[in-house]
Every structure is written in structure tokens, then in C-alpha cells.
């Protein structure tokens, strides 16, 4: 189970948290980022995939 910080319309944290699935199901604003590091040779290889 992953909890996310809820943010207001300006992106400021409200001090509340919510489960990830619930936030996505109900459209609750939250912060997240995805970092992908790729290397292309003969085929694209994913070296790192992390959600922060």
C-alpha cells in the first residue's frame, strides 16, 4: 500500500495523505514523478525505472 501527499490547486501540500489507488480512482491531486533512464543500442534498454 502506497500513500501520497494531497496537494491543493496550486500544488501546496495540505498535510493529508491518501492511498495511491484511491487518489487515482477519485481524481485527487497529488505529487509524483517518474524517472526513466534509457540506453539505445540495437534495442532500447531500460536501465532504471523509478517512481518517486
UniProtKB/TrEMBL annotation:
Family annotation (Gene3D superfamilies): Nucleoside Triphosphate Pyrophosphohydrolase
Domain of life of the source: Bacteria
InterPro entries on file: NUDIX_hydrolase-like_dom_sf
Name of this chain's protein: Uncharacterized protein
Organism: Allocoprobacillus halotolerans
Amino acid at each position: 500500500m502506497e500513500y501520497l501527499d494531497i496537494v491543493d490547486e496550486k500544488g501546496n501540500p495540505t498535510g493529508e495523505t491518501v492511498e495511491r489507488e484511491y487518489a487515482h480512482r477519485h481524481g485527487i491531486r497529488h505529487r509524483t514523478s517518474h524517472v526513466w533512464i534509457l540506453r539505445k543500442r540495437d534495442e532500447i534498454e531500460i536501465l532504471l525505472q523509478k517512481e518517486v
